[in-house]
Amino acid sequence: xxxxxxxxxxxxxxxxxxxxxxxxxxxxxxxxxxxxxxxxxxxxxxxxxxxxxxxxxxxxxxxxxxxxxxxxxxxxxxxxxxxxxxxxxxxxxxxxxxxxxxxxxxxxxxxxxxxxxxxxxxxxxxxxxxxxxxxxxxxxxxxxxxxxxxxxxxxxxxxxxxxxxxxxxxxxxxxxxxxxxxxxxxxxxxxxxxxxxxxxxxxxxxxxxxxxxxxxxxxxxxxxxxxxxxxxxxxxxxxxxxxxxxxxxxxxxxxxxxxxxxxxxxxxxxxxxxxxxxxxxxxxxxxxxxxxxxxxxxxxxxxxxxxxxxxxxxxxxxxxxxxxxxxxxxxxxxxxxxxxxxxxxxxxxxxxxxxxxxxxxxxxxxxxxxxxxxxxxxxxxxxxxxxxxxxxxxxxxxxxxxxxxxxxxxxxxxxxxxxxxxxxxxxxxxxxxxxxxxxxxxxxxxxxxxxxxxxxxxxxxxxxxxxxxxxxxxxxxxxxxxxxxxxxxxxxxxxxxxxxxxxxxxxxxxxxxxxxxxxxxxxxxxxxxxxxxxxxxxxxxxxxxxxxxxxxxxxxxxxxxxxxxxxxxxxxxxxxxxxxxxxxxxxxxxxxxxxxxxxxxxxxxxxxxxxxxxxxxxxxx
Length: 621
Ligand code: GCB
Prior knowledge:
Blueprint lengths: L1 H10 L1 H5 L12 E4 L2 E7 L44 E4 L16 E8 L8 E7 L5 E6 L2 E7 L5 E5 L9 E8 L24 E7 L3 E8 L5 H7 L1 E10 L7 E6 L4 E6 L4 E9 L12 E7 L2 E7 L4 E4 L2 E4 L2 E2 L2 E2 L2 E2 L2 E2 L4 E2 L3 H14 L3 E4 L6 H10 L2 E5 L11 H18 L5 E8 L5 H17 L4 E7 L1 E3 L2 E4 L10 E4 L17 E3 L5 E5 L18 H18 L4 E4 L7 E2 L12 E2 L12 H23 L2
Parallel strand pairs: 21-34, 22-25, 25-26, 26-27, 27-28, 28-31, 30-32, 31-33, 33-34
Antiparallel strand pairs: 1-10, 2-3, 2-4, 4-9, 5-8, 5-10, 6-7, 6-9, 11-12, 12-15, 13-14, 13-16, 16-17, 18-19, 19-20, 23-24, 29-30, 35-36
Helix pairs in contact: 4-5, 6-7, 8-9
Bound molecules: (2S,3S,4S,5R)-3,4,5-trihydroxy-6-oxo-oxane-2-carboxylic acid (GCB).
């Protein structure tokens, strides 16, 4: 005990508490939402965190903004207070909620009160954040629960039982979205740095020993066509407990299949392996999900899970043993008509509904993990998903601490969504410049993703190498990834769209080849001849030429595309006063949701591919 105490001192109490393992599927457990109206204080100078010597304030400091600090007499000097005058909605970025926040990057303190949720004597309560951009310090009743970095992944802290009061628990979160050279993403991105508690907050009530994580998927090793023939599938996964509890019985049920199984946990993590009969597989555009229940003691967790196998065979991507072409589109997590981050199910319905209208069977959720509604809805709609961590452009590849930060975001992304059949690709980054350090950094992430999850493909969006008049796809990172994904803007950043007619392509890898980005800017409603930049006609022409190039000049390993991008999105880098006004205009939908001409070109291409595939499938026995 003494040793543990010393360790706590050395590491700092906060560091230890910050290690709380992520609880998967909080919605499938007892939970109480803390969404709603919170108070805020904008704190540009971080006065609530540092004293006048710029030292971190002591816990009990009256000037610390985590303390409620009510005046005891009228003579007390008090210089901060949370007030109804400054209210803000959670979840939601702060930028769109008040004009003063539009370009704000820095610290904002959030505060609200809550009562103890209904719970049994042996229960514990966790405070769960679906995402806070970027750095969060969380305090309850004047005590620090922990901190977290990374703007797009969830985290949670256990609330010590003696800290939770019956009523009026005073919860404060310091949120800071300042960009830094040694963070992920780093200083430079082509998207808006929306700040705030951008996703849901909830209390999750669990028994003292509980299932923290679990996974079920089709075993990767089975020959899927053989399994389909025999109608017997091998399923594997694991169940992880919050603490070792040898001998605990865990029940797994899939009611629709009348399947029940009890396993005995031998340590904190136990492997599962069993066969399922009469299983309908999750198919792209024909989703099938099963309610799966996990029971340990008094807690039953329920989640809808689909089963499918995705693999690469030579130059092909196969889903459930059948070759598939990915008709994709890239998406930012933004609702353009309201200039804000997307966060709820209605938002997900809009974005994925738009993708569906375009004829997609796949979406690339760029450039960071999107909120959980997106992957849940994709699961239901049968839309395949590429999910990515924001290792974007030139981050600090030499710095081992930066690698750790990237690893953490990767782990959190996988932990949250590993039961989503829709997610077929984990991407470890976008357009990272070739160098020895970056390839070591990125291949480390590829290997890590593969080790923790063998049921998906691992990718990274690469850049074109130009050499002797040819376009080369030969980035050394391609040797590590399962598919070779490339961003190319031929006809926008170089040349005119008809440059596609003579472009030569050489792909150095015998792997599926995927265009993860291509696109051109157009202001919706601006019409001119096709040579005029930013006109809908230019963008339309760009898509026509690109598609001709794909069809006529691309290697036979061409396996799909996710052009840039579904809808116009905000970017501080786009400053043209007539066409951009802080919008990246490469959307197929404009900022008001209007379809541009290029939308119909891509839609027609996707329809043609689908019709071709449907006809070929009809011919198969
Ligand atoms: C890219 C980036 C993407 C940008 C896009 C553009 O290659 O991956 O984040 O927004 O180009 O519009 O230039």
